[in-house]
Design a protein that fits this description.
The complex is a heterodimer.
Chain A (H helix, E strand, L loop, with lengths): L1 H18 L2 E4 L11 E7 L5 E8 L1 E2 L16 E6 L2 E8 L4 E5 L10 E7 L5 E7 L10 E11 L2 E13 L7 E12 L5 E12 L7 E13 L5 E13 L1 H11 L17 E2 L2 E15 L1
Parallel strand pairs in A: 2-17
Antiparallel strand pairs in A: 2-3, 3-7, 5-6, 5-8, 6-7, 8-9, 9-16, 10-11, 11-14, 12-13, 12-15, 15-17
Chain B lengths: L1 H12 L9 E10 L10 E4 L5 E3 L5 E7 L2 E7 L6 E6 L4 E2 L2 E3 L4 H6 L15 E3 L2 H6 L9 H5 L5 E2 L9 E2 L7 E5 L2 E2 L4 E2 L4 E2 L6 E7 L13 E7 L8 E6 L3 E11 L3 E10 L1 H5 L7 E19 L2 E20 L3 E21 L4 E22 L2 E22 L5 E23 L6 E21 L4 E14 L2 E17 L2 E12 L1 E4 L10 E4 L7 E14 L4 E18 L20 H4 E17 L4 E16 L8 E2 L6 E10 L4 E10 L3 E2 L4 E6 L17 E6 L6 E2 L3 E13 L4 E9 L9 E6 L6 E7 L4 E9 L1
Parallel strand pairs in B: 1-7, 1-8, 12-17
Antiparallel strand pairs in B: 1-4, 2-3, 2-5, 5-6, 9-16, 10-11, 12-13, 14-15, 16-17, 18-19, 18-48, 19-20, 20-21, 21-22, 22-23, 23-24, 24-25, 25-26, 26-27, 27-28, 28-29, 29-30, 30-33, 31-32, 33-34, 34-35, 35-36, 36-37, 36-38, 38-39, 39-44, 40-43, 41-42, 44-45, 45-48, 46-47
Chain lengths: ~290, ~775
């Protein structure tokens, strides 16, 4: 009996040492990670303004946390297409480089390059091709919704049913996007608020009619009770591979977790991060 | 032509010799003398001509030879060789009772009985159970799967993990069979221990390539284990006490040489040790147990029956009370149950059959209940897989130089990916969602071990597999081929090819063998996985030093292997109680391709004063999935360029055995965050700024570089054990002192981003699991 007692005591001590897992600095050489330029630019033939945001990534192992004001304001941003090239100008308020699309029209089926250089000697480049179909065939949306304005909150609940026809004989990718159209009854201004979004491919549905239903709920703070939901803006984009891969990886992003595989964010920027992508779409506004 | 073949088959089956030279068959069983336990894999050879065979899983052999003077030797490592010389002029039955060698005899026995260079089969390892019991183990818990991991071509998933990664394959691609029954989840305690401690096992054999046609259903390996039948001669047993568990085995005759039984059990007692120290209102615990049982009955010379079973369970529980009105209970449990009824029948001296009815069940469950002031909520979640199989195998030795195996297996699978029962006193929420899937998997096979010349031997086989689920049928042929050519005595060249199909997929987004991992069938959308493997190698025996040396190169390519789309989750538990349908798992997986290739080198010494092996593997394994890493190829997490294992067991004298292992492996390929940055989506509405909430649609993301482009620090570790044996009055006692991770290497289990001591700068931190861990255990054998 005594032996068993000693044995149990010894076991308890050993088990304690076992389960006190050990944490320490990894103490291994990490790859050098100088900050990289991060470009984000989406172009569509429907745009009136071409815009590019330029930021820098921040190496993780030299800092405390992400620096949200890492916008690069002194870069030279050049976009070029078959009709020539233009330099975009920095807009301080919107924190991006811009130019009117009339200077460099975005034409379906054309390729564009984006080159960004900085006084630090950084230089990155990306290229993308605009889908050649203009808009999406047979795009239609129906909607039922309910809205309430209670305790200073506007709340809506919506069901969208959209339909479109895929372009047959080719690999296609699409994105449905919707926004709530809000009217300020004092100023009579309307504002769009991002609402619902769906990314999909024509996998197994080549040339067919594609239909989908989306349910959403949305709320907005309106203490003055001056805002009113008057309808919804809906877009259907035929998107290129860069556009699809980038958004798909962004929406699947799960952050850090030691037990799951991290999502790698798509980039087509040579020497940098981010994306230069193109889409071609149709827009429908539905009033409630 | 067909008629001729039928005639030949008829002549074979009737046992009639048809050639000019008269041929007769020597057949029988090989037993261990002291226990009358049948012995598998024992060589029975006519040493005059070199023609020979090995006993099957039931100890049966059949050797058809031309009429002549024969010199039959029956030999195996650790046993005295039996030799019979006689003139073969009629069909003869000889049963061998092999006597175990004493220690001194093992040392002086210069004969090398088992020759790796003679065997047609390549890419196969077998480890004597006694050796498994002598190899040092974590907390002294002897573990078959962890010993298998020490063989070249086999890797572990990580620190302490029992999962097997064979030649670049996943942990789900191994067919683990115990007495013909498939074991679906072979792990206890989240993979730190396996179900198999070796006490109740008779043999363990791992096939990594060149698969004979009798095996099918998995891509990467077959681990076949046979339970002991039970001592037919006398009542005996074994008992052991270790740090975390105790075990007991009892076996003996029910009727001498006619019938015997075996029961073996193991249970951990961490819960019992900790329980008294926990507060009354907050009790929690964990335990696992295993139970093996087997009985056999020899009906007559031609018929024998076996009934065997395994039952095991892991259970975690926590009970919380807050005052007299509030009670909360959480329980997690998972376990396997298998049962096999087998009937051996001897149709003739040349034809042996084994018919088996097999049941296997794996179930995982979560229970949660809450009681608060009279109101209650309870939730039960379970998932699992249950199989019923019928199997009929024949061993047939029709003529000299041919040994045929043929048969079929058919399995009815029933999958329960998720079953949820919710009960609540707060309204009509009582709900029950049970989803099941059913499938039938079958295989029919034939293989011929054909000795073409004294130097050239082949094993040519063919398997036709079939799978049917949800109205979709897959029928796939699987050719198999293996050949051995003897260059000179003790040196041979080997080659093999095998095509394998796997109709079951394991959904696991952790890869660490959690009980939540879910088996699902191939479907209309998700095709079966398929692999092809070629291997070339050379095997050499060096009798002078009792060494077996093998060098093999392999190339394996697979298609339709299953990967998990980035960001996908299979923890269906998330959907518990919700009204929405769980996400269809088929939407979360993506089919892909895999390639692995490499070289394996093994020097093994199975007998002598110093036994053990040195293994080295140089390998590459890559994956490619359409929906992962943007369709680009990448190195698998367990891609391991170098893997070394050294195992030594040294009998210092009759009373002391010293054993040690050292392992080294290139670090796992992982993806690490290097930098972070902010991104936006395309928002055509221009609503990038919401009132007072700037950039609400910004994503802060990590820059990981290329997928799996970073290597964890290399893994290495040394374990030692010292066993003291002593003969007592009623039993043999073994006392073992062991040390796991002798030089306290802090191997990384995983990395994460933490902060330095100042809390100002982020650092890459690692978590290690097991420091130096001493252990003691005490075993008696009677």
């Amino acid at each position: 009996m005594k032996k068993i007692f000693y044995f149990s005591a010894l076991s308890a001590i050993l088990l304690t040492s076992l389960f006190s897992s050990c944490e320490k600095d990894a103490g291994i050489a990490l790859p050098e990670t100088p900050p990289k330029l991060v470009l984000v630019s989406f172009i569509t033939p429907q745009d009136t303004i071409l815009s590019v945001t330029v930021k820098r990534s921040q190496p993780i192992f030299e800092s405390y946390s992400v620096n949200t004001s890492s916008a690069v304001t002194d870069a030279t941003v050049i976009m070029a297409g078959s009709s020539g090239s233009v330099q975009l100008v920095y807009n301080l308020q919107r924190e991006c480089y811009e130019i009117a699309s009339t200077v460099l029209p975005v034409i379906a089926g054309n390729s564009y390059t984006l080159t960004v250089t900085t006084p630090r000697g950084e230089s990155v480049k990306a290229e993308t091709t605009v889908p050649y179909h203009s808009g999406v065939a047979g795009f239609s949306v129906t909607m039922t919704d309910s809205a309430s304005n209670d305790m200073g909150f506007i709340q809506i609940s919506t069901d969208f049913n959209y339909s479109m026809t895929d372009y047959a004989g080719e690999e296609n990718r699409y994105r449905f996007f919707s926004a709530v159209v809000l009217l300020d009854t004092l100023t009579n201004d309307t504002t769009d608020f991002r609402y619902m979004n769906q990314l999909f491919t024509d996998n197994n549905k080549d040339g067919q009619q594609i239909q989908s239903s989306l349910h959403g709920d949305w709320a907005n703070y309106d203490p003055a009770n001056t805002q009113k939901v008057i309808g919804y803006d809906c877009w259907m984009f035929n998107v290129n591979k860069d556009y699809y891969n980038y958004h798909n990886s962004l929406y699947n992003y799960s952050g850090d977790d030691p037990f799951s595989e991290p999502t790698i964010i798509y980039t087509n920027v040579d020497g940098g991060l981010g994306v230069f992508a193109a889409a071609n779409g149709s827009k429908i506004r539905i009033y409630r | 032509m067909i008629r001729k073949n039928i005639l030949l088959l008829f002549l074979f089956l009737s046992g009639t010799t048809f050639a000019q030279v008269q041929k007769f068959t020597i057949s029988g069983f090989v037993y261990e003398k002291s226990s009358h336990e049948s012995l598998p894999g024992i060589l029975v050879v006519n040493t005059k001509t070199g023609a020979g065979t090995a006993t099957n899983n039931f100890g049966f052999y059949s050797l058809t030879l031309p009429s002549d003077t024969v010199l039959i030797t029956c030999s195996f490592v650790g046993y005295k060789t039996e030799i019979r010389k006689f003139f073969l002029d009629k069909n003869t039955q000889i049963n061998f009772d092999l006597d175990a060698l004493l220690q001194e005899e093992v040392v002086i026995n210069a004969e090398q009985d088992e020759k790796i260079s003679d065997n047609t089969q390549m890419s196969q390892v077998s480890i004597p159970i006694e050796q498994i019991k002598q190899i040092p183990a974590l907390l002294g818990e002897k573990d078959v799967l962890k010993v298998i991991q020490l063989m070249p071509g086999v890797q572990s998933g990580g620190e302490g993990n029992s999962g097997l990664y064979v030649r670049g394959g996943g942990a789900d691609q191994n067919l683990i069979i115990l007495d013909d029954a498939t074991v679906y989840n072979a792990y206890h305690l989240f993979g730190f221990f396996s179900l198999f401690n070796g006490d109740a096992l008779k043999s363990v054999e791992l096939t990594k390539g060149g698969f004979p046609a009798r095996y099918g259903g998995r891509l990467s390996s077959v681990l076949e284990m046979q339970m002991k039948d039970g001592n037919q001669e006398k009542f005996s047993g074994e008992a052991g006490i270790g740090i975390i568990s105790s075990r007991l085995l009892l076996e003996g005759p029910l009727k001498k040489k006619k019938s015997s039984f075996l029961v073996s059990g193991r249970r951990t007692y961490i819960d019992a040790l900790v329980y008294p120290f926990l507060p009354d209102d907050n009790k929690a615990g964990y335990y696992f147990y295993d139970f093996n049982a087997k009985v056999n009955y020899t009906v007559n010379d031609k018929n024998r029956l076996f009934l065997s079973g395994y039952f095991g369970k892991d259970k975690f529980y926590a009970n919380y009370k807050n005052g007299p009105d509030y009670k909360e209970k959480v329980g997690l449990n998972w376990g396997n149950a298998t049962g096999t009824l087998r009937w051996n029948h001897l149709w003739s001296d040349r034809l042996f059959s084994n018919t088996a009815l097999i049941f296997t069940n794996y179930k995982f469950g979560i229970k949660y209940s809450e009681e608060s002031a009279g109101a209650f909520t309870s939730l039960n979640y379970s998932s699992g897989i249950r199989d019923f199989s019928i199997k009929h195998d024949f061993d047939f030795s029709p003529v000299p130089d041919h040994y045929l195996k043929f048969g079929f297996i058919s399995t009815y699978h029933r999958f329960t990916p998720s079953a949820v029962v919710l009960k609540s006193s707060n309204g009509p929420d009582n709900s029950s969602k049970v989803k099941t899937l059913e499938a039938v998997e079958s295989g029919i096979y034939i293989e011929d071990d054909w000795r073409i010349t004294s130097r050239l031997k082949t094993n040519i086989g063919f398997r036709l597999s079939h799978f049917n689920t949800q109205g979709k049928s897959y029928v796939r042929p699987e050719p198999r081929f293996a050949a051995r050519y003897i260059l000179r005595e003790n040196l041979s060249l080997k080659a093999s090819y095998a095509l394998m199909n796997q109709y079951l997929h394991l959904l696991s987004n952790t890869g660490i063998g959690l009980p939540t991992d879910l088996w699902v069938p191939a479907t209309k959308r998700i095709k079966p996985q398929q692999s092809q493997q070629v291997a070339l190698g050379s095997a050499m025996d060096i009798p002078k030093y009792k060494l077996m040396v093998s060098l093999e190169g392999y190339y394996k390519w697979s298609k339709d292997v299953v990967g998990y789309k980035e960001g996908a989750s299979f923890l269906l538990v998330n959907d518990l109680g919700g009204n929405e349908e769980p996400v269809n798992w088929e939407d979360n997986v993506t089919p892909g391709k895999a390639w692995s290739y490499g070289f394996e080198f093994l020097v093994q010494r199975k007998f002598g004063k110093l036994t053990g092996w040195v293994g080295y593997t140089l390998s590459w394994s890559q994956l490619q999935f359409d929906s992962i890493n943007f369709g680009n190829k990448y190195y698998a997490k367990y891609d391991r360029r170098h893997d070394i294992s050294v195992v030594g067991i040294y009998k210092i004298n009759d009373h002391i055995t010293l054993s040690a292992t050292w392992v080294f492996g290139t670090g796992n390929a992982i993806t690490l965050p290097l930098a972070e940055y902010a991104l936006t989506e395309h928002d055509p509405s221009g609503s990038g700024v919401q009132q007072n909430v700037p950039r609400f649609n910004n994503w802060f993301v990590n820059d990981y570089g290329d997928k799996n482009s970073f290597r964890m620090a290399p893994y290495h570790r040394m374990d030692i054990a010292l066993q003291f044996h002593r003969k007592m009055k009623y039993w043999d006692r073994t006392f073992e002192l062991g040390v796991y991770n002798l030089y306290n290497r802090k191997n990384p289990f995983f990395y994460y981003v933490g902060y330095d001591n100042s809390g100002q700068q982020r650092k890459l931190k690692q978590i290690s699991l097991f420091p130096l861990i001493p252990s003691v255990s005490w075993t008696i054998k009677f």
